[in-house]
Amino acid sequence: MGSLREGLAVGLRRTAPFLLSHHEADEHDRCYAVGVRGRTVRLCARCTGIYPGIAVGLGVAVVGEWTAPPVLIAVLPAFALVDWTVTAFSTVDGANPVRTATGALLGFGYTSGAVRLFRDPPAPRVLAVGVAYALVAGALLAVECHRAEDR
């Protein structure tokens, strides 16, 4: 039986490729490949947009003291959901710049919704938007997982 340190080292080696990209090898086309110290690091294209979108949303909310209207909070994530749905359920490959752009809108929408919830609780329309997206995305993920099992 190996030591705890050896077990941690093995676990880190196995999970390291997923730290910046949660895609398996067959989905590396959904990632940017960046060379770092002679190694290729994969960055999820959509997440590459989400995090800057979150940062911009925080900056606008804090510095500009701006609160997004519920309609904007409802619309911004739709672009990422539509893009993901099209590429997941059709033969369309999609494009990483589109994933990044829709990710940025998604990140900004996430932050705008969270800021609205903190500034104007209970913000029932914002909560309804979040619940609706969670239900739709959950249903689509369930369908996608079921389709993957049938293949």
Structural features, described:
- By secondary structure, the protein is mainly alpha-helical.
- It has one domain.
- The chain has 5 helices and 2 strands; from the N terminus they run H-E-E-H-H-H-H.
- A hairpin with a 2-residue loop joins strand 1 and strand 2.
- Helix 3 packs antiparallel against helix 4.
> Spatial order of the strands in the main sheet?
1-2
Instruction: Give the overall shape.
Output: globular
Class by helix and strand content?
A: mainly alpha
Helical fraction: 55-70%
Roughly how many Å apart are the termini?
37 Å
Tell me how many strands there are.
2
> Cα-atom Rg, whole angstroms?
18 Å
Q: Secondary-structure element sequence? A: HEEHHHH
Proportion of strand residues? 5-15%
The low-pLDDT segments are: none
**Whole-number count of domains:** 1
Features:
151 residues; two-stranded antiparallel ribbon; 5 helices; 8% strand
Itemize the secondary structure elements and their pairings.
Elements lengths: L3 H12 L15 E6 L2 E6 H19 L6 H20 L6 H24 L4 H27 L1
Antiparallel strand pairs: 1-2
Helix pairs in contact: 2-4, 3-4, 3-5
Brief sketch in words of this structure:
By secondary structure, the protein is mainly α. It has 5 helices and 2 strands, in the order αββαααα.
